[in-house]
From TrEMBL, chain B:
<keyword id="KW-0812">Transmembrane</keyword>
<keyword id="KW-0813">Transport</keyword>
<keyword id="KW-1003">Cell membrane</keyword>
<dbReference type="GO" id="GO:0022857">
    <property type="term" value="F:transmembrane transporter activity"/>
</dbReference>
<feature type="transmembrane region" description="Helical">
    <location>
        <begin position="101"/>
        <end position="119"/>
    </location>
</feature>
<keyword id="KW-0029">Amino-acid transport</keyword>
<dbReference type="GO" id="GO:0005886">
    <property type="term" value="C:plasma membrane"/>
</dbReference>
<feature type="transmembrane region" description="Helical">
    <location>
        <begin position="263"/>
        <end position="283"/>
    </location>
</feature>
<comment type="similarity">
    <text>Belongs to the binding-protein-dependent transport system permease family. LivHM subfamily.</text>
</comment>
<protein>
    <submittedName>
        <fullName>Amino acid ABC transporter permease</fullName>
    </submittedName>
</protein>
<dbReference type="GO" id="GO:0006865">
    <property type="term" value="P:amino acid transport"/>
</dbReference>
<keyword id="KW-1133">Transmembrane helix</keyword>
<dbReference type="InterPro" id="IPR001851">
    <property type="entry name" value="ABC_transp_permease"/>
</dbReference>
<feature type="transmembrane region" description="Helical">
    <location>
        <begin position="67"/>
        <end position="89"/>
    </location>
</feature>
<feature type="transmembrane region" description="Helical">
    <location>
        <begin position="225"/>
        <end position="256"/>
    </location>
</feature>
<feature type="transmembrane region" description="Helical">
    <location>
        <begin position="194"/>
        <end position="219"/>
    </location>
</feature>
<dbReference type="Pfam" id="PF02653">
    <property type="entry name" value="BPD_transp_2"/>
</dbReference>
Amino acid sequence: MLLEVRGLSTAYQGLLAIQGVSIEVDTGEIVVVAGANGAGKSTLLKSISGMERPRSGEVVFDGARIDGLPGHAITARGIAYVPENKRLFPRLSVSDNLRLGSYLHRKEADREAPLERVFTLFPRLKERLPQRAGTLSGGEQQMLAIGRALMTRPRLLMLDEPSLGLAPLIVAEVMRTVARLRDEGVAILLVEQNARAALQIADHGYVLDGGSVVLQGDSRTLQGDARVVETYLGTLAVDDAPPSRAASGR
Amino acid sequence: MTTQALVQVLASGLLMGLIYALIAVGLSLIFGLMDVVNFAHGEFLMLAMYATFGLVLVTQLDPVVLMPLVAALLFVLGAAAYLGVVRFAMRAKANQGMVQIFATFGLAILLQGAAQYLFTPDYRNVQNTWLGGRTLDLGGIFLPWPQIFGAFVSLAAFGGLHLLMSRTDFGRALEATREDQGAVALVGIDRNRVFALGWGLGAALVGLAGAVLAIFYYIHPQVGASFALIAYVTVALGGFGSVGGALVAGIIVGLVEAVTAVILPPALKSIGVYALYLAVVFARPQGLFGRL
Ligand SMILES: Nc1ncnc2c1ncn2[C@@H]1O[C@H](COP(=O)(O)OP(=O)(O)O)[C@@H](O)[C@H]1O
Ligand SMILES: [Mg+2]
């Protein structure tokens, strides 16, 4: 197993936001964590990435404990994390943001392959290299955030609500990219409030509620589970929305 | 005033201004990186001057030659100041700004006291240097060689800093850290390392200035204070955190000071600078090139 989270609990000012959460992600998998707003999804990712320090529990990555390590060391181990608010460097150019992504692999020769891969996945970024990251559209910022994360050459990519605020067409594009990355060997841990689109590409899923895992299973089972559909995915299928209304993402 | 006298005043002001810019730039760099004002900046300068003095005594080499070594020593001092003091001040749970101010202020008092104790309050000067006391005669305009040298060191330092910031991975890491210090971990950058290197770099720059000043200025434990005051004015004028702003503001301060010195009695030569500073604070509080 690439990532094993065992009994993880994290508190803010003494209040537990997640409680005894255990999940697993293996190479070649997309794992989705769904759950309502405030369920603790972001806290889970922050606790794995070292942004927040868990109060108890273990995070084991590639056989070694990483909980308690500082965030930069966790990135160096091979976990890339795209937080909900992306945290790009908005005044720096697209090019500089991507170069910063390869800070751990600074030899020019080591930079070429990851950069080519990012341009293959997101050709639009190549056209915007000199532009300041802060001036990109929401969809492009999401692409840059994923691109920057890929430049660290991760074995696990964690994405926090990548589809938030994006037009359906762009969401579909992001999901296709995520599926493609999985096929190229990057394990994916994907957090989504509206997990319908995510579950379609996922292998496994967990549902968080009130800081704990309340349901888990392979994605097809979860998609077919009436309780999940009603309680966590809503009754209106996103896929039914007319695609003609999708903005271009600019 | 004759044209020649005017050119003399402006040229002297320009040279001193470039040296002021070199004194101030490290302060601005550190502020820009992490929003911390280093109140021990003048003491860093003072120690750089003593380091030059001591190294000249020991090695019998000229300050011009020793300058890189002084800068390297100051680099270590700056990094140590961050790792030993400021890092802990930044962990304060409440009133972080105040804690940082008092931490660097305490460091200033400590360094001054230590200098007083170790080096005595006596005035020292570095003797028999290549440049000290020599002037260049440009058709009746006399320019002191130490200041000419200092001005060129300053320009070279600003050029080098610009290249470092815009062309290297370390420069990009500095820029990214000043943008969002909480986000650099996402790309595997240890912000504590960047901060320590940033403090080292800022101190090394003031180390260059100290080696230059040691050639033509008396050295004593309080020597940093008056230069530090000019440095704070320069940084505020140029815009806190702006490297280019420090260069322009340093030149302006040097020119205004030189002009004031001819118009008013020499004892009042600083008045023009502070008047200018107040005017800028009222008209443009973020400084000439600052962002608010
Ligand atoms: N920085 C914070 N400080 C205090 N409480 C927080 C903080 N971040 C999240 N919380 C709380 O923790 C709980 C889980 O939040 P979060 O992990 O952001 O949920 P989700 O991502 O599922 O919407 C919520 O009750 C939220 O209010
Ligand atoms: Mg969230």
